[in-house]
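User
Here is a favour to ask of a fellow structure person. I am asking you to supply a protein in sequence and structure-token form. Please set it down just below, with no commentary around it:

Assistant
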Amino acid sequence: MDLVQTILLALIQGVTEFLPISSSAHLILPSAVLGWPDQGLAFDTAVHLGTLLAVLWFFRNDVQILSIAVTRHLFAGESSEHSRLGFNLIIASLPIIPVGFAARFAVESYFRATEVIIATTILFAFALWWADRVASREKTENSLTWQQALFIGIGQCLALIPGTSRSGITMTCALLSGFTREAAARISFLISIPVIAGAATVKLFDLATATEPVDWESLLIGGAIAALSAYLCIWLFLDFISRIGFLPFVIYRLILGVILLILVI
């Protein structure tokens, strides 16, 4: 890839990984409009690692507090608000593991069509709008129960279908569970850590067994740009979401779906 392609694709991955707008829908645009080839497995791995570093660094204090609380609960029997939140976030992260493993070949074979991405981009835009409209928006993440965590985790499995948006569907489920917009976003970001880590691990394994040449310069540049843009995106999103709501993202998704529809007609 040339430098422009590297920078643009890394920015797309970094920004869209955490906003409720679907990264897979955006990654269609460069190839559809500019005729760019697929970026390759090595680059996918690098930008995923970049976004993982971003979310880990942004929530480093939360991760440390929750990890210590869960460890104390397991080994010293010290139950606390933080340990319960930690366990419930783990519960929310679990359903996608067996579902993703079982459905990975079906997703690759049947759900990566552009028409599917267009349909899910538009459909889940309305789902997010409806959830934000009817939600009570009263609860903080510390009140997360295991039932709510399981509901959000099951919802996250829908993100295996390209165009759904992992952050979008988890925020939708959290809003429907009565959480504030900021709490819904924080829950979504925190449960993304094991998901992105798992995806990066799988890609690293595939990369280790692949024979394609590796352009280390593009990987370093792409990973760094994805990390920086993802960190900035998380910070801005959490800063503004309680004030602006989800409607701008709903409108954006609808516009994106229409643009993709026009491009494939």
Remarks:
- The chain has a mean pLDDT of 88.
- Residues 3-264 form one domain.
- The chain has one domain: 3-264.
